[in-house]
Amino acid sequence: MSTRLAEGGRLIDRSQAVKFTFNGKHFKGFAGDTLASALLANDQMMVGRSFKYHRPRGVVAAGAEEPNALVNLGKGGTFEPNQRATTTEVFDGLAATSQNHWPSLEFDVGAINTYLARFLPAGFYYKMFIHPRPFWKYIYEPFIRQSAGLGKAPKDRDADTYEHFHAFVDVLVIGGGIAGLAAAREAGRAGARVMLIEQTADWGGRAVVDGVKLGGKDAGVWVKDTLQELETMPNVDLRRRTMGAGVYDHGYVLAYERLRDHVPEMDGPRHRLWRIRARRTITATGAIERPLSFAGNDVPGVLLASAVRDYLVNFGVSVGDRTVVVTNNDDAYRTALALHSHGLIVPAIVDARPQGGGELAAAAKAAGIRVANGMAVAVVKGGKRVTGVTLCLQAGEGAPLEEIACDCVAMSGGWSPVVHLWSHCGGKLSWDDDQAMFRPDAGRPPTGADGAPMVIAAGTANGHLATAGAVADGWAAGLAAAKAAGHAGKTGTAPKGEDAAAAAPLPVWLMPQGASYAKRSKAWLDFQNDVKVSDVQLAAQEGFESVEHAKRYTTLGMATDQGKLSNINGLATLSNALNVTIPQVGTTTFRPPYTPISMGAIAGVARDALFQPVRKTPIHDWHEANGADFEPVGQWRRPYAFPRKGESVHDAVMREVKNTRTNVGLLDASTLGKLVVTGPDAGRFLDMLYTNMISTLPVGKCRYGLMCNENGFLIDDGVVARIDEQTWLCHTTTGGAERIHGHMEDWLQCEWWDWKVYVANVTEQFAQIGVVGPKARDVLESLGGMDLSKEALPFMQWADGKIGEFDARVYRISFSGELSYEVAVPASQGRAFWDALLKAGEAHGIMPYGTECLHIMRAEKGFIMIGDETDGTVIPQDLNLGWAISKKKDDYLGKRAQERSHMTDPNRWKLVGLETLDGSVIPDGAYAIGDGVNANGQRNTQGRVTSTYFSPTLGKGIAMGLVLNGPDRMGEVIEFTKGKDVTVKARIVDQVFYDKAGEKQNA
Amino acid sequence: MKHYSVFAVAREALRQHTGWDRAWAKAEPKKKYDVIIVGAGGHGLATAYYLGKNHGIRNVAILEKGWLGGGNTGRNTTIIRSNYLQDPSAAIYEKSRSLYETLSQDLNYNIMFSPRGVMMLAQTQHEIRGYQRTAHANGLQGVETAFIGPDKVKELCPIINISGPRYPVLGALWQPRGGTARHDAVAWGYARACSAMGMDIIQQCEVTGIRRDAGKVVGVDTTKGPIDCDKLALVTAGHIGVMANMAGFRLPVESLALQALVSEPIKPVMDVVVMANTVHGYMSQSDKGEMVIGGGTDGFNNYTQRGSFHHIEETVRALVETFPMISRLKMLRQWGGIVDMTGDRSPILSKTPVEGIFVNCGWGTGGFKAIPGSGWAMAELMAKGASPLTEEFSMWRFREGKFIDESVAAGVAH
Fold first, then answer.
1. With contact defined as beta carbons under 8 Å apart, do B314 and B293 qualify?
2. Among A225, A201, A198, A203, which Cα is nearest to A214's?
3. Residues A729-771: tens digit of each pLDDT
4. Please, which residues have CB within 8 angstroms of residue A265's CB and are 6 or more apart in sequence?
5. Under CATH, what is the fold of the domain A1-154?
6. φ, ψ (nearest 5 deg) of residue A548
7. Is B151 on the interface with A (CB under 8 A)?
8. Which chain A residues touch B165 with a CB distance below 8 Å?
9. Please, which pLDDT band fits residue A214 given cuts at 50, 70 and 90?
10. Taking the domains of chain B in order of start, what are their residue ranges?
11. Which of residues 355-414 of B touch A (CB under 8 A)?
């Protein structure tokens, strides 16, 4: 059984017991335990079920590479699926449940798949479930979906918060093992700004567990000394529980800090996402041990040899009383020796190498451990946990030679450097035949903006598996990185590591070498996704020869561990099947993140109200306090209408229109874009931007202008006012302000960079209020101040002055067809001015109105609206706006485009007014039906509605639309879609429904 | 070609699956083909398939620089819909969608077309009007869509937050027969069917030059030697500009990185596909249980198949707002593909200035859903010289200003 030993465990604090539950069972662990070590300490060997066959799964690793031990964690707002038990630090009250089984972990109906496995090989679903057709959606697929999926979905809103930090460093060191520590110390000594991050809660990595010697000291002592020195350096930032998640172009690195996953009761954000710009990044990310592919290697109790050692040394946990060690390299002997020194039984070390191992093997033999060279595991006995192994010759086909009873198998297929971060941004790998692994190719590194290498791999991550090489490589990487970042301070000498003399590893990709199909179909490559050696071989047989094809066909490496354990074994299996070398097969692409990171951390603080902060006009609070019904417009929220108590939104809109047409209405128009364009070339610039002539506009006057893009399509409109000789103020639509500002800057900076023009977006500097209606002048005059008479300020002019006590710029422009003043005051005076107008207007029946009233009034008047009459395919000529296109100018943006054949086609759809015969409102978006069908069988159309409203002024539905040859067809009746097989008839009329002569706005 | 069925699988199970053939044959180039297709992605393979199936042209080679289906076909978010606004788009996408309905049976390969329904959220008044317009247009185009209210949205997708403080959901354009399919299987299924018709799929074969004589194509140079042909189709998506350059003409196409990501798998929680264009993001749940998430393109031209993290952040932020429950899920993997964007964001299926050369490109962010329809139309264009489905998608439309602009309705996401 797996249990906690009476002594030992360098990371646990036996004085601090913690209580936790697993599937409702109460367990005890110690502070410093991971959930995996604590479960093993309580003999909880089985922790989950696999994805496809629902096989029993136990812990196999001790770190981020764990594919099996995934649990649901927490409850309610802190529930989270797929948490890796090996990287979850246990805390008091932790509640975990296992995943992917029904009804229980121990008895899972889905486990029937394991008996059907022969019918469910790689890619079986591509060959089945084809007939009958509806069955896929209604029967097969729901079943597959239900049986896949691992953890449960969170139901409640996330109760935690997240944040983002930015850092700018000379040298970022990822990985706090001996190579990373040596690198950080040396870069720090050289004077570089250094950040050292480590994904786990403690420093030193494997060296400390393995008890190697550095500079004559125990690794643990060396790590402590090094840390002490690092902590005194002001230019070095150390962060634990912080994982290097991804490396991106230009030295941009993402790191993921788990601040309080291990102390949930603590306040503050749960995760912090670091966005780091580093001149150089050192990836000292270590290596991951590979499993061996033998039959039954997925039975709970079969672990990586290094994991068995980790649990023993770090947590004082023995996974089994009797552990058989299976290996093809020297490193696993450390596990045997560690177990032996703790008084545990190692019945045999099964070494696939005929010649056996080096000094460590000699030590094992000297300790009295049996070493069986040239041997292999034929099959592992046991279902829900290991009961024994059958041995055979590695060179043979698996004929059983002897059986050994054991409750744990520690396997080691060699080590693979963690090259993920090196590879994310284009670093290439080379195959190391001697050590049977891919390692970073220093000649083909990821390069930064300057073309120089931006990532340096160091230590075991760089292929230096032995202590001496790893620590020296880390030291050298630190020096090189600091130097490349421009720091060459006084540094130390390389630390010296000591290693036992090792024998060469033997690549073993299948155990035994000639394993039968029965064995190969029980030899797992990907434990989570249930991909076996036989599956990859089937893929090769069926022509899925590219490593990407084989991966996708078998799902190898696509599980939550992203193939950290399975990739190299899988592609070695593939290369054997194809009879080509491993480097010829190549690797799949390494993609960020290194291990999964929470969506919450990626989103950061930008949630709810902060998701996209609402822009507010100076009058916004009044709107809120007075029951405005808002709609989002750009980043603003504008009042759609101001319904009164008991009034519907529709009724409110009707009231607002009527009141504005008969008395006076008040509109908060502050959101309209206001761009100041100034400079000696401003007139010339605006002549290019607008279709009209702007440069000739006299100071003091306003002109309605149209702006097109270079394809000729209308993109914005608004009133331009000439402020002084060199200055114009351009109004844009509410949603267009930033876009048009960018458009102007684009042309100024990229094309006309020598023109002397300056553009400023002053939208938020002013509150702009429309005082609209027959009594508008009365209201304004009652406040006193500047002369606003028709004579002093006629239509389409502006003037500066005082209204009451307010500093006002008054534009006499109208988007409603009414007598209208748009008054801009400094933003700080906006609210007071609004209040003053309301008060002054009381006697005249003043009411505020919202955007819908605005829309109806402009439609009644036949004014176009950007986004309604335009949609990116409409040119001004379509809208009968030819009058606003200067014939005198040589050029303007869109002029050439508007001369193309399709644009000058006489059969374009053109703007008209529409009136239904029955007075009803044509639905939004309706199309005018034409005759017959087109070559693709679609009903022909001859137009569409662009704006459609119920007009309270006219008491009936009115609309505008684009209709084929529309202006030539006045009075004709055409049919519009209304619903399924329902149409509505409408007559083509003039688009101006209200005050055609313009007497009101000119009043 | 061995017929795939549950019985075949059972039979093979009894003999350790030793009887399965290669899904597609290994091929070395012949000296000459009637048609060469450059690019063994979905569009290239489908073009070949329908050339053979509909027009009897089977002396065809499909050349692939890397591995088949390895470009955008294997990198997209697998959404299939045809709720397009403009007639030419709706025609080809609906043709495509309807071919997807029976594609598993046609190819004898389960491509897992799952018409689970696609909704595009309306979160502003402007979007409501836009989608209502699309619904009206679709009605006349023979595309089944409807504008639905927020309650129906919530009923179809319970994990959606319809009353978010910033952009409440006001409704959606709903296409019940839209959905998803298994992207790799589409490429593999077509490849297998092409191979069964005797066509040569030649992988690891990069085209290095296009040989012309008197304004007409005569063949290509490749890393496996020169190959002659009568007709040549260039179907290389993000690298189409490179191919056009070899053929001596230019295309109005920019190549941009488009990114996607998946979460770790969870039990089924979302049956429909949701696209939220105001906040920029879309999401569905795969049969494996992963939440499949797509966002926008980077703002700069690029040939590397990876993108910046900033877009991932924007997309995830938008979706955490739309689906608050995903906050505690984890991003498993992000990746990128290179999409070919035209000026009007609509594809080009066209003859070219070189006689005998045809292009199929510009699918931008929306190519996967179009694969069968695109192949069908392209085959017709190549075999007959014209197709009603490709009529409006000529490369010369930009000269005439005859754009097919879908941004009107689709916003960012395709």
1. no
2. A225
3. 999 999 899 999 999 999 999 999 999 999 999 999 999 999 9
4. none
5. Ubiquitin-like (UB roll) (3.10.20)
6. -70, -40
7. no
8. 608-609, 611
9. very high
10. 22-82+85-107+183-252+344-400, 118-178+255-342
11. 388-389, 391, 397, 399-403, 405, 407-408
Is residue A321 exposed (0-12), middle (13-18) or buried (19+ Cβ within 10 Å)?
A: middle
Going by pLDDT thresholds of 50, 70 and 90, the confidence category of residue A670 is very high
Nearest to A679 by CA among A695, A703, A698, A693: A695
pLDDT for B304:
86
Confidence of residue B408 (pLDDT cuts 50, 70, 90): low
Give the DSSP letter of residue B324: G
Judge whether residue A8 has pLDDT over 90.
yes
ipTM: 0.97
Residue of B328, B333, B400 with shortest CB distance to A80: B328
CATH architecture of A904-1001: Beta Barrel (2.40)
Closest by CA to B166, choosing from B326, B318, B325, is B318
Token pair listed for A370: 């049996």
CATH number of the domain at A291-356+371-413, please?
3.50.50.60
- CATH code for the part of the protein at A607-852: 3.30.1360.120
Give the number of A-B residue pairs with CB atoms closer than 8 Å: 331
> What pLDDT score does B412 carry?
35
Tokens encoding A904 = 């000058």
Amino acid (one-letter) located at A901: S
B89 near B346, Cβ under 8 Å? yes
CATH of A523-585, one of 3.30.420.40, 1.10.10.10, 1.10.10.60, 1.10.10.1100: 1.10.10.1100
- Ranges assigned E (strand) in A101-251: 162-174, 194-197, 213-214, 217-218, 236-239, 242-248
Question: How is chain A split into domains, by residue range?
Answer: 1-154, 162-287+416-491, 291-356+371-413, 523-585, 607-852, 904-1001
> Is omega for the bond preceding A593 within 30 degrees of 0, making it cis?
yes
**Fold (topology level) of B118-178+255-342:** D-Amino Acid Oxidase; Chain A, domain 2 (3.30.9)
Place of tokens 């309650």: B151
Grouping H, G, I as helix, E, B as strand and the rest as coil, residue A560 is coil
Overall fold of domain A162-287+416-491: FAD/NAD(P)-binding domain (3.50.50)
Could B287 and A141 be called an inter-chain contact, meaning their C-beta atoms sit closer than 8 Å? yes
How does pLDDT run across A808-858, given as a tens digit for each residue?
A: 999 999 999 999 999 999 999 999 999 999 999 999 999 999 999 999 999
CA–CA separation, A484 and A477 (whole Å): 10
CB contact under 8 A, B164 and A926: no
Interface contact B266-A936, CB threshold 8 A: no
- Contacts of A426 by beta carbon, 8 Å cutoff, 6+ apart: A446, A447, B304
**DSSP for residue A87:** G
Q: Determine the Cα angle at B62 with ends B58 and B68, to 5°.
A: 130
For residue range A771-806, what is the model confidence (pLDDT) as tens digits?
999 999 999 999 999 999 999 999 999 999 999 999
Look up residue A383 and give its DSSP letter. Answer: S
Residues 190-219 of B with CB under 8 A from A: 203
Rounded to an integer, the average pLDDT of A246-264 is: 96
pLDDT at B295: 82
| Inter-residue contact A1 to A321 (CB < 8 Å) | yes
CA dist A572 and A916 (Å) reads 73
CATH of the structural domain B22-82+85-107+183-252+344-400, one choice from 3.90.1280.10, 3.50.50.60, 3.40.50.1100, 3.10.129.10: 3.50.50.60
Same topology for domains A162-287+416-491 and A523-585, yes or no?
A: no
Closest CA to A982 of A935, A934, A916: A916
Q: What pLDDT sits at residue A1003?
A: 87
